[in-house]
Amino acid sequence: MDNRVLFVDDDQMLLSSMERCLGLKLNLDTALSGPEALDRMRSTTYSVVVSDMRMPGMDGVQFIEKARQVAKHTVYMMLTGNQDVQTAIRAVNEGQVFRFLTKPCRPEEIAAAVAQAQHQYDLEASERELLNKTFVGALGVFADVVETLQPRLVGRSGKTEQIFDDLRQRCLLPARWEYKVAAKVLLLGFAMQTQQQSGVNVSPTQANMQLNRACTTAARIVQRIPRLDPVAEIIRCVPTTDGALVHANSEDPSDVILNGAALLRVAHMIEAMVDSGVECAIAMEAIRKTLPALNDKLAAAARDAYPSDIEVEGVPVDIENLQPGLVLFEDLTGAGGATLLRSGRELSQTHIEKLKEEKASRGVLPPVIVTRASFLAAFPEAVTAQTV
Questions:
Q1: pLDDT tens digits for 108-122?
Q2: Helix orientation angle between 253-275 and 177-191, rounded to the nearest 10 degrees
Q3: Angstrom distance (rounded) from CA 309 to CA 257
């Protein structure tokens, strides 16, 4: 793992001394100020950063606060004089620094402290790798298995992930593993509902009930896995988000959860409406109506991320094969051109019986054109079929 160390101090003599005494033991870089150190950190990964407390312009605490925004996984240490001990102790207690050393400090003491900080960095890096490659990987396999058992949902999870990441980048939010996993597993909740529970083209009330059930189910699944509590909270908050975004670069867990839930709700709505052939203007109106506090930046991101080449299409279904829940893609007309049912109407068993009676009396009726989304919900095994 990386063992590059950065020393930050406005005393050139001290930095030169560190290079002479520790240069052979450590992969060492130096910087004479906080701004110079930040420039280095933007292009180089450091496992440990050791900063002096008292520096002109930007002191050690201010530097570390800014440095954490650039390299949050780096382990930070502070060199301080006796007069700054209370400040250093407070920084340690607040989690800003791993430990502090008081001046004067012998090179071997600094080397030993850096070794401990390096060990801490390695432990945290190993933990992140375990989380990303083991827990998250296992969860991804589980999601793939469930999607395989639900042909209607194959590919939807990946689309939601892509839309989510597009929105995240447009809103200038940092990439986080919690977001990636939450976007992956949301559809698990839908996949584990019955076909009737997870139907499409339903009323807003029914759609909200479906979303609540799906999020509750998905959150219950992931919260059983160690260290995935933040993912469970993001998913659990999706149904109740109002679309507001909070501080983009905040590391506060509650802010991370609120931002993730807002983006995931919008990504899910976009994916579902694209799948149903809804055009952008109508989709944006629905999103704004559903999320009253929708952040302007997120609204603009949603509009820009929405595909411009929506393929609005219907699927013909013979009268004998109609099922309740299919939704009319176009108006259904009877003899003489009279409108029997309007487009967008969900067929009930009563509607279907009347259509069968109409066909029996007239001898022939053309296939009924239904929406692609409702067709795939009713006939998941016929994903590539053109007619039934």
A1: 888 999 999 999 999
A2: 50
A3: 32
How many C-beta atoms surround the C-beta of residue 236 within 10 A? 19
Q: Which are the contacts of 379, defined by CB distance < 8 A and separation ≥ 6?
A: 385, 388
Would residue 79 be called left, alpha or beta, if left means φ above 0 and alpha means ψ between -120 and 50 degrees?
beta
Q: How far apart are CA 298 and CA 242, in angstroms?
A: 12
Residue 199: its pLDDT value, please?
45
pLDDT digits (tens, 9 = 90+) for 4-25: 999 999 989 889 988 888 888 8
- The Cα 65–Cα 78 span in angstroms is 12
Q: What residue spans define the domains of the chain?
A: 4-122, 150-305, 314-382
4-122 homologous superfamily: Response regulator (3.40.50.2300)
The pLDDT, as a whole number, for residue 267 is 93
Give CA–CA dist 223/230, Å, rounded.
8
Name the CATH architecture for the domain at 314-382. Answer: Alpha-Beta Complex (3.90)
CB 91 within 8 A of CB 78: yes
Distance CA 60, CA 80 (A): 9
Task: Return the number of other C-beta atoms located less than 10 Å from residue 384's C-beta.
Answer: 5
Q: How many CB atoms lie within 10 A of CB 80?
A: 23
What are the two backbone dihedrals, phi and then psi, of residue 75, each rounded to the nearest 5 degrees? -95, 130
Report the amino acid identity of residue 246. Answer: V
Instruction: For tokens 């584990």, name the residue.
Output: 192
Tell me the whole-structure pTM to 2 decimals: 0.57
Total number of residues shown for the chain: 388
